[in-house]
Amino acid sequence: MFHNDNGGCVIKYNFTIKNYRCFTDARPARFSISRGMTCFIGVNNSGKSALLKMFQELRNLWHVAANYDGSGGANIGAMQSYHVFDQQEIFCDRNNRNLAIEIEVVGAPEVTDTGAINVTRVVLVGSRDYVEAHNNVQWSIDYYVGKELVSQKAQFSKSGAAGKGDEFFLAGLGSYSVALLRELFGILFASFYVGPFRNAITVGSGAHFDLAVGEAFIGIWNDWQNGPNKRHNRAITTVTENIRRVMGFERLSITASTQSKTLQLNIDDRPYKLNEVGSGLAQLIVVFGNALIRSPSIIFIDEPELNLHPSLQLEFLTNLASYASYGVIFATHSIGLARSSAERIYTVSSGGVGAEVELYEKNVSPVEMLGELSFSTFRELGAEKILLVEGTTDVKVFQQFLRKAKKDNRVVVLPLGGNSLANGNVEHELSELRRVTDVVAVIVDSEREIEGGEPLEARTAFVELCRRLKFEILLTERRATENYFDDEAVKNALGSGFTALGHFERLSDSQNGWSKADNWRIAMEVDWECLRKTDVGKFIDAL
């Protein structure tokens, strides 16, 4: 797994995209990615799908850049873009200028453990002129520290002690490291793209972008399920269990037919061919199966809500994220799905000078969010309670806790928005929930610093408000949600180098902390029998 956090500080990468398809240099696409989920939302043909495809189309570039052993200021290679016949297609057709990708590292320490200065910015430029003669894109690379261009310094050269070439020496100034950028390029190269078409049934087909489909996929499934590799055998069992859980079946088995032309399903002791079940179930099988086999760093998926009931969409996306070591980036039309799952949301819209990307910062009331999530469809399936938690990362955590308590189909989890709502000044917004449902429960972090200590003043006021509204309310005995994770769960989810927090230890203060975006991964590993003995577990048990 990739864990590019330093002492609890989360590293993020800021992208600026100029002259790629519908994004011009007059209005470049600007967005950030880091661990967790990132969402692009917009109407049809706004450009959100193009941003996802960019990462797949430029996979050759990420591979070359990750292995580039020079100091920059030079061409690194001519190459074709993935699944693009005419290489001119990737360039913006509103001007004749070069394609440029700028990436800035944010949140990293200024120097490495060896004392080298971290290179925090890279600019990759694709030459439009070269395409005319060769139908290849010639790419160049430049390294920066802040705004200072370092790759064209006269005496900037590889250090003999650098090992893999991550460090360079600049006479009079010292050593520079490009390790963080190389790691990012490696993450992008190891990504997995899922387009809006995902069908396992098509006989004779081989692949759709990164998806193995049809007989190719069925053959791989059969090899993993029935071959000699026990790790593969166990992995198929895990995928099948994930699909069973998402769909709510009691029992499920999936096997290849005798001629490997289709998949045979047994659902709750009744047999089905794959073409006899709905497209939503077929989608889960082909996407989860491919993700398992690819074992990617990032999963890019276009419209994850396709073919799925609203009550299954977040469950599908969260389970899909479990196959990605770094995160998920998705494009959607559903603002409800975006709000309930993504740590970062960007809107993409068409403008007079090309597509525009903006950070989505609109706040809505809990009732509006219930509408965006189509709460009425949840009620049709038996949902009877609303659980309010602090933020988007907590939504995915408490989904896992509710599943362990076998209450996930009866409770809909909504984010409060952290301190923006978890205070005593939001009575009108919260009281509106009574018009929707009679049963509202709330869990908020106390932020206590010691056992029995005072919670944050704003949280105390919020508790009083919830009690006036007759909400079921829990102000945690420990500092925050992540203080309830046991050590075994942390190690199982993140690796042996990580340890559980103390009951009142702040995550950002921990020497080997993790990103809050990974909290849900740990929650999946938590022992429910241990958790249910805590105040949080008892509260969930009583819902």
UniProtKB/TrEMBL annotation:
Gene3D superfamilies: P-loop containing nucleotide triphosphate hydrolases. Residues 11-375 form the ABC transporter domain. InterPro entries: AAA_GajA/Old/RecF-like, ABC_transporter-like_ATP-bd, Bact_Antivir_Def_Nuclease, P-loop_NTPase. One of its GO terms (molecular function) is ATP binding. CDD domains: ABC_ATPase. It comes from the Bacteria. This is AAA family ATPase. The lineage of its organism: Bacteria, Pseudomonadati, Pseudomonadota, Betaproteobacteria, Burkholderiales.
